[in-house]
Amino acid sequence: MALETTYIQEKLSQKFGSNVLNFEMKRDIFSLEATSETVHEVIQTLKEDESLNFHFLTDVCGIHFPDNDENHQFAVVYHLHNWIENMRIRVTTFLKGENPEVSSIIDLFTSANWMERETWDFYGINFIGHPQLKRILNMDEMVSFPMRKEFPLEDSGRTDKDDRFFGRTIKQIK
Fold it and tell me: CB within 8 A of 113, min separation 6: which ones?
């Protein structure tokens, strides 16, 4: 018997109620939203429930929405894969802009270690319970998070960059 999206929706809705919402197919991936307080439990259910079998974590990433309201300025997106049914699922949780934080899922998937570190490194999203949340790609001395929308795109102090090499031309003022 193939795993149906309606079955997944019913199973999660029955267990988590209004803490899971917005079930839909997006670009051929079944997607849902979970509250930040229950996203760990939702992912644990998707992994450990024998009728669901989402045993493979494909990706964890962050998104910054600075124009959204305070409670939806950041999102963490989890992609899981059921190898038995060859089915993917996307779980999104929204976080507050002031202090974005969510529970780590490293206890469920050890592969989440570097993915959560990268998300923290670039977006400043704190993964509560992560054993070693520190910079992974940026310099340790860096105090900002470069994937946030308020991060400047260019360093005005650079003298080694010629805009012509980046497809930009400077207009001459006459």
Answer: 106, 130, 131, 132
Q: Which fold has domain 9-150?
A: Beta Polymerase; domain 2 (3.30.460)
The tens digit of pLDDT for each residue in 83-94 reads 999 999 999 999
| Per-position DSSP letters for 83-117, written without gaps between them | TTTTEEEEEEEEE-SSS-EEE--TTT-TTHHHHHH
Find all residues with CB under 8 Å of 158, minimum gap 6, and list them.
none
Provide the mean pLDDT of the chain.
Answer: 89
Closest CA to 60 of 6, 136, 139, 142: 136
β-bridge pairing 29-34 and 56-64: unpaired
